[in-house]
Design brief:
The protein is 41% helix and 10% strand. With 348 residues, the protein is mainly alpha-helical.
Length: 348
């Protein structure tokens, strides 16, 4: 990366910049790197009427570039990983996703997809619901650190009561708990564990007729009395989807320090899901319990086939509960086997 920094610096100093500059180049331009600041860094500045101070050091430019590239791609990759596992475990939601893709994209070739025309539709559909539900259950980070000003306390209101948080107090917002608060999330009133389960249909305000993947009855999606359908959260991309109250959904944090890569991540994840599930499906691998030939000999309606899938599903759920790994982003489900098949060739 040091070599890349010097190459980019040389391009800027020589005036060979171009529109649509890459991330490192944009950071260097923002740091006011010119031939004058470059000379000033070597002690050769002569014209004091021209800015000679580089606003970001080379180390700061490298650090920010590293965070953008590595942290941004790692967290996005983890979310895609989790979404694929959840969809393999919930074939009904996967079919609903594919149905929306068929309606939005039809048989258009990928090179005909249009950002302005198609992306809003994707984020307003089951694609957006799957992304939001995945981030609700497994956000990229588990806690968001906050700090009150060092010189003054800060007031905080909770359930109508005001509290004073002392100056210089560290506060950690625990996202898994925040994202499961029953006061603010649509939940099935007949399932006490509903908010711990993957159900992207909860985000669809018109989901009364969405079929549950465990049976053929409609989901009983119900908004909590304290939920708010006003567009108070910038993280929810459309008024068609459920809008949690401000502060109830924070996968990208919130406020002036919210994640700068939020939109980029949404576009990346939506694109991957659209490209993959328009033509393919993802299934749990059941090799541990039956071979391909054995599965093929089982009638689709046979309880034996369903039993094989359920054994693999139990293993996958246990692995997702117990196999949590933390790197730049949280990742669960390491070791869960899946297979990608052409649509129409699904075995379960």
């Amino acid at each position: 990366m040091n070599e890349l920094l010097q190459v980019k610096k040389g391009e800027i100093i020589a005036g060979r910049t171009r529109e649509g500059m890459d991330l490192m180049g944009a950071l260097m331009q923002g740091a006011v790197i010119t031939k004058y600041t470059d000379n000033a860094s070597r002690g050769n500045a002569r014209n004091r009427t021209i800015p000679t101070r580089q606003l970001l050091s080379d180390e700061e430019i490298l650090g920010n570039t590293f965070i953008f590239i590595v942290a941004g791609h790692e967290t996005t990759a983890s979310t895609i990983h989790h979404a694929l596992l959840f969809l393999a475990l919930h074939p009904g939601s996967q079919r609903n996703l594919q149905k929306d893709l068929d309606q939005i994209l039809g048989d258009q070739p990928i090179d005909k997809w249009d950002y302005e025309r198609d992306l809003p539709k994707l984020l307003n559909s089951m694609v957006g619901a799957v992304i939001n539900e995945t981030l609700r259950l497994i956000p990229p980070i588990m806690q968001i650190p906050k700090l009150t000003p060092k010189t003054q306390p800060q007031s905080l209101e909770v359930d109508g009561r005001k509290f004073i948080v002392p100056a210089g107090t560290h506060v950690n917002i625990v996202l898994p708990a925040t994202h499961r608060n029953p006061n603010y999330w649509p939940a099935d009133p007949h399932n006490a564990n509903d908010l711990n389960e993957f159900r992207p249909e909860r985000w669809l305000l018109n989901s009364e007729n969405v079929v549950n993947d465990n049976n053929n009855e409609p989901n009983t999606t119900a908004l909590s009395p304290k939920s708010d359908t006003s567009p108070s959260s910038q993280d929810t991309p459309s008024s068609i989807l459920f809008h949690p109250p401000k502060g109830a959904y924070l996968p990208f944090s919130d406020g002036p320090r919210a994640c700068l890569g939020r939109r980029f991540a949404q576009v990346e994840i939506a694109t991957v899901l659209a490209v993959l599930f328009r033509s393919h499906s993802i299934e749990l691998a059941v090799d541990k319990y039956a071979s391909d030939d054995e599965i093929d000999r089982m009638p689709e309606s046979e309880e034996q086939r369903k039993g094989v899938w359920e054994k693999a599903a139990q293993d996958a759920r246990r692995c997702m509960r117990e196999g949590v790994r933390f790197g730049i982003a949280a990742r669960v489900g390491q070791g869960v086997g899946v297979r990608v098949v052409r649509r129409g060739a699904e075995r379960f």
